[in-house]
């Protein structure tokens, strides 16, 4: 995840609809160097919900939905931009994408230039796995439909799995990092994702969800309204290092209305 100070700044700038408040994050930031028991006592003293500490301090496993969003052919599109032009280009991209992530209850796990990893699940959301799939699906579609046909078209990798939050105690850099095999699988999937598509492993529960069907999708929370038509591909064979599956599918926005 971004360090806690950056995460607080992102939530303050863009707003958020998940259940972890900036007050909780600020308390974590202030007490980061203390023991888990001391942090819990501080939370209790302030009347803050301590559930977040089960994951951030006690390393409970979290079953998450991941989205890896990045601009298609980013290097090619930006190779002739000056440093100031590139900064403006990325700032605009963040201003479009991050509010959509937060509108659907997701949280920013990592920002790597044009690459943004969003997570849906504990401790930020307490919904069932089906609901988490739905929120991640709507978030990905919103982003694809909004940016399709612009200079910031994206590709999205969708994956899920169990992870732990690792507490990075490096001096002056307080953060909780998501660790797990599913994150490696997400990175590999992103490498073969397609433009204007949600790409996923063919064994994913996502493949059988009602919302993962051919049909139109209208973007939410944006005016004027935009709609896109999504088609599911047949199975595509891939060879991804360190991944046990050899087939993926793409759920592609074919046109806007």
TrEMBL record:
It comes from the Bacteria. Residues 65-190 form the Guanylate cyclase domain. This is Guanylate cyclase domain-containing protein. It comes from Mucilaginibacter dorajii.
